[in-house]
UniProtKB/TrEMBL annotation:
PANTHER family: BETA-TUBULIN COFACTOR D (PTHR12658), TUBULIN-SPECIFIC CHAPERONE D (PTHR12658:SF0). This is Tubulin-specific chaperone D. Tubulin-folding protein implicated in the first step of the tubulin folding pathway and required for tubulin complex assembly. Involved in the regulation of microtubule polymerization or depolymerization, it modulates microtubule dynamics by capturing GTP-bound beta-tubulin (TUBB). Its ability to interact with beta tubulin is regulated via its interaction with ARL2. Acts as a GTPase-activating protein (GAP) for ARL2. Induces microtubule disruption in absence of ARL2. Increases degradation of beta tubulin, when overexpressed in polarized cells. The lineage of its organism: Eukaryota, Metazoa, Chordata, Craniata, Vertebrata. It is found in: Cell junction, Adherens junction; Cell junction, Tight junction; Cytoplasm, Cytoskeleton, Microtubule organizing center, Centrosome; Lateral cell membrane.
Amino acid sequence: MAQTDMDSGEDGGGGGEPEVIAKTSVLGGFTESTEIRALISSLPVVHENIVTLESAIERFLVIMDRYQEQPHLLDPHLEWMLNLLLELIRSEQSPPLLVHLGFKFLYIISKVRGYKIFMQLFPHEVADVQPVLDLLCRQDPRDPETWETRYMLLLWLSMTCLIPFDLSRLDGHLTSDPSQTREPIMDRILAIAKSYLMVTDKSRDAASVLVSKFVTRPDVKLKRLGDFLDWSLTTISQASDQTMGGTVILDGALQSLAQLFKHGKRDDFLQYAPVVLQCLDQCHVAESSQATLRKLGVKLVQRLGLTFLKPRLAKWRYQRGSRSLAANLSLSQSGSTVQAVSPDMETQSQEEDYDIPEEVENVIEQLLGGLKDKETIVRWSAAKGIGRVTGRLPRELADEVVGSVLDCFSFQETDNAWHGGCLALAELGRRGLLVPSRLPDVVPLILKALVYDEKRGACSVGSNVRDAACYVCWAFARAYEPTELKPFVTQIACALVITAVFDRNINCRRAASVSDHSVSVSGTFPYGIDIVVAADYFAVGNLNNCYLSISVYIASFPEYTRPMIDHLVAMKINHWDGVIRQLATKALHNLTPQAPDYMATTVMPQLLPIALGIDLHSRHGAILASAEISHALYKLANQNNRYFTVHLPVSDQYVVRPQQIFVVVVVSCLCRGFGGELMRPAVCSLIENMSLSKMPFKDDPEAAVSALAALCEQYYQPQPGMADPQMQEVLVSQYIAGLKSTEVLTRCGSALALGSLPRFMIHGKLHQILSGLQQSCSQREVCFTEARRDAAKAMAQVCVTSGVSAQGGSDSVVCEGNVSAVYGALLDCMTDYTLDSRGDVGAWVREAAMTSLMEVTLCVVGTAPQLLSPDLVNGMMCSLAQQSAEKIDRYRAHAGSVFVRLLHSNNPAVPHIPHREELLAIFPTEGAEGLNWNAPSQAFPHITQLLRLPQYQYHTLLGLTVSVGGLTESTVRFSSQSLFDHLMLIQQDAAALGQFSETLLHVFRDNLRNDRYTHTHTHTLHQFCVDLLSLCKEEIKKSKDTQKLRSAIAEDHSQPGVISLSFSLQIRKTTASQVYEMLLTYDDVIDPDVMDDVMTSLSDTNWSVESGDRNSISVRAHPRSLS
């Protein structure tokens, strides 16, 4: 579906997928509450049966996953779901499996709604502490099946830790007897938290939450905070990220520290912050190879930075006066504005008059380094840290931080630095920390980031940079007053529109579309609402629709026309992706009516020198663009009766004209060698468009270097239906000579060129053309396989173009004098089984021949069916039947579809098809369309029915022989089964069975020494006769082909003397094993004395020894007895 939508380019929504997204985003409420209540209530019953249990879990997951995007809809229902599940968990009658199932359901709910919201609903009375703690102590941390239980219990324990009582009061039950010691609850909880910080599952995350809630309690921090920090720093110092276990330990310790410094009071943790920062520096967490550890390091560093700085909001920050959309629109229409809030300078001076600790510089340096990290999660965390820390700095220091962030936007930096810089700017702008005076420095960098695309090898990087730049634009539109952005809004609008319409990446197009919406509501975006409606989130999902439809609508607004054209010329016609280059040239064709003079006077002079440049992609795109624009200008001139002059670039060496591009390209050999595959179609497109545009260059003698149908129609037809004799002779002779070239690509191009000639160019030359193509088809060299394929295609094209006439001349139409030669050449192509390192490349020729046979046959039948003799039709249908029974799915399917198409053709019907009535019974008209020829399970049961028809039996069996002995399991299984079913049907019919056996031997006899059939034939039937054994022995005589010998062992193991002394150790061992098995099977028909002698020799002989003393004399001494 996606491919269809992309190809159509007309559906603004991109097909069905966006509709699904739209529907899942507009849920009105939790409509499945009744079903969820029933599911939870049924858990005590369904948990006993694995099938019903899995069904209940799957249904619960499906329902909950629907609310991933709108989890707030679950809020009114969370409490009763929690209570129902806790009731099951707390029940003494609940078995362990049911308890774990309840916690699993709780985890699914928390995953959708978020643990921070869901954990607040857990009961947290004093009476809950001990049961939760005891239940958690009974869990096995290494059990992979119950991690959800441990995760939810840790979150529950985190809530129970918030009780406003000293935990020592819960230890009142402890006895004073020293012989009966019990650990206090405080120590038990801390020990559990530490132990779960080192586990490998998600419980580690919940343990860090437990630490942040528990250690920050007033009673615990007095007694255990210092010890816990010492333990954490010691753990970090001793662990190594080079091992899996060390990575897990570091992850848990860093998570717990980050949570502590986030939730703890600054006064409590300020004294420890320098020590923690020093430990991180010494352990080089920022240089770890693990992205998760680097992210946690950045997260912890920013929390340390916030601890060093006083928790105050910067008074110097920019504060937008109103964030209301309705207010902004109304004020925009009335012409008034809400003024931004400006801080009092005296108050600002007082607020900034405090010392900044030295460690803050280290923190900011590490955060700036994190912006350049190679992983997105690290850069995103560093960007948020930059925003948070900068918000507590004085204005001068904050401006220095902004300057350091802007240093990331250097073309000496990588795409990672650009991405991190964009994220940081977005955070700074969103928080009001990027003052308007900085916008002239920032906006040009963002405009560059919106088109950032750096080529790396065969592709490019930068989509994440462009996506982040769209996020910056979105943040700026929400953070600043429209008056602040007014000087830059046109530039930003053009850049966002270009990204939304022309970006290759769908995420970037959609991000730009959303940013367009945010900027447009400011009221200063030119034609903002119209553009947002046309290029909405779903419309830009279809690339073809963006380039060919939406771009034309947006370009109708003058502010966007030239920027869009300039972007296509500068960035897209030289893009590394060929699809983008072609779409860009088509877009230029469509945009030409919007600015025809600009195209003629500015764009075309830029393109013509590029078309002859050294860069392959630029050259390819420029040629295509020149062709499309020229054709568009011609059509526009015809409509308006106005002509446009292209201002040609003049150099000291030459003046380039559009109609001379392909001449210079060919003369410069730019269509050969590396890149020729791109340049040749581009030049052909240029010729076609120049021809359609009626470009005046008939007097150019070099214009005969190439030809297409449009070129011939326009320039080589002095009178309708008549060719220029001189040009006809030149072209036909040139391409027929090309069919004999030593270069395979030249042969291919010549064949396809002959096939594309119009009828008046073929008239009088048909015999010469067909002879050349037939000769090209008959050359079976491996290196010319592609040339034979294209010659087979061209033969059908030439026949169809020239037409059919029973009484016509053989030099002008297909007639009685040449139809046999055409069919003979195509049927000969059906026997092409050429092999090379790429595999069965002859299949390309066979496929082309099948298609050509169908096209020629339908053409002949439609005009002069009497030209088709019974022999021609019989040979064609038998060859198609053979191909329909072979092993390669694609070509079997193609042959089958052609076979059925010819069989069912009735306008008029193909004459002389053997056994037509029987074939129609096997392949009825109503069922043929639903037959999947690609599936062996469907194809072979139909194909083997052709074995009942004498005319088709030989060729069908020839194809089945290859399939039965193939390598693909499904093909071998279904072809063998179908063949066996056929044998079962005829086993009582002696005549039919004899005919089948004779045909099988005939196939084998005709293909002796043909490895394609020999390797597979010996697998076809293990029931053999004397003639078959004789053929097998003759086949393997003096053979050194181990594969052939292995295949023959199954048929020849009763004559061990033939193979037992083979040159191959493996062949000797396999033969001895087969003989031994045969003797055990047929021990009742062999002389006991001979049996004992041979069995002893087979058992005692070491068949793997190279020396000549192997004792195989006994085996060779009794061949007749064994026979």
